[in-house]
Specification:
Strand content: 5-15%
CATH class: Alpha Beta
Number of helices: 9
Largest sheet: 5 strands, parallel
Shape: globular
CATH topology: TIM Barrel
Helix content: 25-40%
Number of domains: 1
Radius of gyration: 19 Å
Structural class: alpha/beta
Order of helices and strands: HEHEHEHEHHEHHHEEE
Number of strands: 8
Distance between the termini: 33 Å
């Protein structure tokens, strides 16, 4: 989606958070995302009260709220305000402490790690820069997994111009996720998080016939999650690797 298609508002207090959220929700948006802190050491942080106001308005209409945290302060403000999903780790903040992990767990938030994003961001810089950020992000994900936190799959495609998700699966495995945990991040975890577990996320009688068939076995190589043979939605094939003869 072109950047011009997004509706962006600057909010610095609860009143502004409420007005901006209501405007988006009245326009029919499916969810709200807060850019909780700008990058860098002197980043500007949206006050927790502003995020909390938007969260309340969205939840009143049964809509999810995401946060791009950027920093530890942005992360803490977001989870305390009640966002549903944190999109991205925060490698610039270093290792996540027990207090940060506890705050995340207490809030019930889910994490979309987007580990490949950090390599992508530094693609024009010395290799060590991107590798360092990725390593820190992987350690944050490893700590989150160890705490029992929920992980959802995502790549930040749209901002990134590289569409192949293979690297993301590899980096998640390097952070300690087994193929079953990665599979859950693609299926049962998002279905549960977004209130769709009675319709989606599993193969069972009576559930939506939304299926992805892989060419290879991800238990042997997690990159196989990207080797899609065909995809069904509501029982109809919507993607096939090769056109039928």
């Amino acid at each position: 989606m072109p950047l011009a298609g997004f509706q962006i508002s600057q909010v610095m207090d609860a009143s502004e958070g409420h007005v901006a959220a209501q405007k988006l929700l009245d326009a029919g948006t499916d969810g709200i995302k807060f850019y909780a802190a700008t990058p860098g050491r002197n980043g500007v942080i949206i006050p927790e009260s502003a995020i909390e106001a938007g969260v309340k308005d969205a939840h009143d209409r049964r809509k999810p709220v995401f946060a791009h945290p950027s920093s530890e302060a942005g992360l803490i403000a977001s989870v305390r305000a009640g966002v549903d999903v944190v999109a991205h780790t925060t490698p610039q903040s270093g290792a996540w402490s027990e207090s940060v992990l506890s705050a995340m767990k207490l809030s019930g938030v889910a994490l979309i790690p987007t580990l490949k994003l950090w390599k992508y961001e530094f693609r024009h810089e010395p290799i060590a820069s991107g590798d360092g950020f990725k390593k820190t992000a992987e350690n944050q994900l490893r700590a989150w997994i160890a705490s029992g936190g929920v992980v959802l799959f995502g790549t930040d495609v749209g901002y990134m111009s590289e569409y192949d998700p293979s690297d993301e699966y590899t980096y998640m495995a390097e952070a300690g996720m087994g193929f079953r945990e990665i599979l859950a991040s693609l299926t049962t975890a998002p279905a549960t998080k977004f209130g769709e577990s009675q319709q989606r996320g599993r193969i069972a009688s009576g559930l939506a016939a939304d299926l992805t068939v892989l060419r290879n076995d991800p238990s042997k190589d997690v990159r196989a999650f990207a080797a899609v043979e065909y995809t069904l939605r509501d029982g109809q094939i919507i993607y096939r690797r090769f056109a039928p003869r």
